[in-house]
Amino acid sequence: MPERPVKVRFPPSPTGLLHVGSARTALYNWLYARHTGGSLVLRFEDTDRARSTDDAVDQALRVLEWLGIDWDEGPIRQTERLPVYGEIAERLVTEGSAYRCYCTTQELDAERKQRQAAQLPLIYSGRCRDLTDEQRAAFEAEGRTPAVRFRFDPAGETVIEDMVRGVVQWDNALQGDFIILRSDGIPTYQFANPVDDIDAGITHVLRGEDLLSSTPRQLAVYRALGAPEPLFAHLPMILGPDKKRLSKRHGAVSVEEYRDLGYLAETMRNYLALIGWSFDDKTTVMTTPELVERFTIERVNRSPGVFDVAKLEWLNGEHLRLLEPGRFAEELQAYLERSGSPLAADRERVAEVAPVVQDKLRVLGQFEGFAGFLFGPAVYDDEAVGRVLDDPDAPRALESATEALRRVVEWDAGSIEEALRGACEETGLKPRVLFGPVRIAISGRTVAPGLFESLVLLGREESLERIATLGRRFAVEG
Known about the structure:
The chain is mainly α. The protein is built from 20 helices and 12 strands.
């Protein structure tokens, strides 16, 4: 039998924001599909009507679009396929692979407590397995609406060769007869998920290891329906730096929060790929085409991955520096507009400043605080000004810099640098001592874009005025 083309799926439940764990799963499925020349199906498992929302669907679509994760089929919504699940459940009942269960919630709760007290497996006892027609009729006469349970064979074991975890096996006696269709006609995850995968022709199931325990029951559905079984790859969990499950206490967990902080989509793809996978023991920065070319499931780790925001920030800085200058300016402008920054209104100025900050930023969200002084008056940091006022060499540094800058003929970075270094030689002050007060005078901060380039952008008159303003503070506070 010829090997089927690779077909994977990403099936989020739209009950909340798409977080980094789900985004990593989506990315791995996408990378595997693109690496193998296969296809990706997007499906929303929205049968939890109480918690599923259209807003969550829309948010997931926005995240996938921003990350550049496209799909070949879908989006499919399970709530649009309810008749399909009903028909297949009825087929399984007819064939004897499933049966109607009339137990009430109260009866099931009581049974669970009894089994727990007796230290028995917490699975359904199967008391509705072999009801007679008369018993079923009696229950229905009482007004009981049945659920449908799968008749799980308790003999032997279910064994898979997981592409990440290797051989995994389960004792079938511990699975129990599970509900596949609730009494209101809504399918359970254990049923709808494999039915959808069968209908779509899914060949590989790449999902989080928290879903590993679902495998034996879902495989039983495959076998009852006589469908080809997929290969499974259960992906490692994502932990915070404290090695506990990633949550809000570790910072942002929604992917859109990172977009809004000024991270690039390229960075998120690169970083998410590295949480549980590696190409080798030394390569970190990778473009998306490189990820597609290099991604294999064989190199996915069994051990949990750690989401480290500090590493993500460093990686984003590396990707910002990889951008062509024009693309960097476009990304910066788009970010400022998206975040509602007043700096976005001056597109021409943003384009002028962009080359000066490209090598300095780690995230685009730092731009306004880092380079805002180039768009309007400097906002002086008290600690930075205090350092100048406490420096006995600062008055001489500012005075010497002022005289040197006044003599500059061509107001460009090279001429300015030459003039200020000349002032260092004349005064005997080290560049760090002379440049520091000038930087604080024009920017209000100790950390700012390149000094010479910033002076160019401010212009001679504004630069000298800011230096003079700080110099005058010595008369009052120094």
